[in-house]
Amino acid sequence: MANAGASKGPDRFFIKLGNDISAVEEVRQALLAYLENFRLEPMVVNRVEVILEELVSNVARHADAASYVSVGAEYADGAIAILIEDDGAAFNPLEKRAPAAFTDVESATLGGQGIPLIKRLSRSVRYDRVEDANRISVVIAA
Questions:
Q1: What is the CATH number of domain 3-130?
Q2: How many CB atoms lie within 10 A of CB 63?
């Protein structure tokens, strides 16, 4: 997939791609390369990967009208702040009701587990609609 724009420096990371499932891996690799600058614990990097994959793949799978997905990140003050943006129809995934808890795989509901997982793995999660864009901001303790 053609990269519509990327930049990284020691302070900030940004990439903007077309809304396609292939964006997940491209964004993941680029963000991991940026995070290498900070020598983070493997557990922190894993949290970033899980959260990033969930949010970017949600845009690709569910935001049909979105033409792009962008990811910004910054490491400061012992935390990683990530901002995911798309230009799809307004949708706040944080308002969606979590599926019922399950005790075994057979009774598990497919789908709907991503946002509760993101909430558990992060310090904070926030949704904003800014002009014509959906924005999810996540802060992960490092």
A1: 3.30.565.10
A2: 18
For 81-124, write each residue's pLDDT tens digit. Answer: 999 999 999 999 999 766 566 667 676 665 567 899 999 999 99
**pLDDT tops 60 at residue 20:** yes
Give the DSSP letter string of the chain: --EEEEEE-SSEEEEEEESSTTHHHHHHHHHHHHHGGGT--HHHHHHHHHHHHHHHHHHHHH-TT--EEEEEEEEETTEEEEEEEE-SS---GGGSPPPPP-SSGGGPPSS--HHHHHHHHSSEEEEEEETTEEEEEEEEE-
Q: What residues contact residue 58 under an 8 Å CB cut-off, 6+ apart?
A: 93, 114
